[in-house]
Amino acid sequence: MFGGSALTGDTDVPKDRPPTELSSGVPITYVPARNTIFLSFALAWAEVLRSQDIFIGVNALDYSGYPDCRPEYIRAYEQMANLATRAGTEGHAPITIRTPLIDLTKREIIQLGQRLGVDYALTTSCYDPTADGAACGHCDACQLRLRGFREAGTSDPARYAPAADEQVAGRVGP
After folding, report:
1. How many whole angstroms separate alpha carbon 98 and alpha carbon 58?
2. Residue 174 to residue 165: CA distance in whole angstroms
3. Are 135 and 126 in contact (CB under 8 A)?
4. CB contact set of 171 (below 8 Å; sequence gap of 6+)
5. How far apart are CA 58 and CA 42, in angstroms?
6. Between 20 and 30 A from 21 (CA), which of 67, 75, 89, 140?
7. Is residue 174 pLDDT above 50, yes or no?
8. Tens-place pLDDT, residues 23-57
9. Residue 6: its pLDDT value, please?
10. For the chain, what is the mean pLDDT?
């Protein structure tokens, strides 16, 4: 890995940040060029398959400050994709980057998943899980997820590490 992030290097993942800090600045958990890499692989595969649509699950409303989750970034990448592909330059099959979650709150994403039958017990959002995969309940991703479930009026069925803290133990979110 390249490092440069608490998720890919030796820096500790921040815990229990106040909600006001969750949406200010680019956090130390930002992985350099992560979505650019994902989209690049997707673009190459889409071109091979002659697909016109690439889907990515970025979210701009409840995001933690990641620059590659913003609508401006997605629009710019889509423009570049159409300048860099045969289909785009020949004008017969332009690429469209689809972002169905970009304008949804975490509550709305959770409710959509419930309507679609997502088993959230099989999912996790944690940036710092325990060795056995239990979510920490304290990192930014856990905090945003817990708040989303609380706002959706339901509890998070994901497995969390044992915690003395009622906020996590009760899955009530920040």
Report:
1. 10
2. 11
3. yes
4. 146, 149, 150, 155, 156, 160
5. 14
6. 75
7. no
8. 667 665 666 778 898 999 999 999 999 999 999 99
9. 43
10. 83
Half-sphere exposure of 13 (CA within 13 A, CB side): 20
Q: 82, 88 in Cβ contact below 8 A?
A: yes
Instruction: Give the Cα separation of 74 and 69 in Å (integer).
Output: 7
Q: Residue 16: which residues within 8 A CB-CB, separation 6 or more?
A: 138, 143
DSSP 87-146: HHHHTSS--EEE-TTTT--HHHHHHHHHHTT--GGG----SS--TT--B-S-BHHHHHHH
8 Å CB contact between 30 and 22: no
Provide the angle, in degrees to the nearest 10, between the axes of the packed helices 106-115 and 140-151: 60
Assigned token pair, 43:
């673009």
- The DSSP bridge pattern shows strands 96-98 and 53-55 to be parallel
**Which residue reads 């979110």 in tokens?**
173
Instruction: Note the pTM of the prediction, 2 decimals.
Output: 0.79
Q: Could you tell me which of 31, 39, 34 has the C-alpha nearest to residue 99?
A: 39
User: Please, what is the angle between helix 71-84 and helix 34-49, to 10°?
Assistant: 40
pLDDT of residue 67: 83
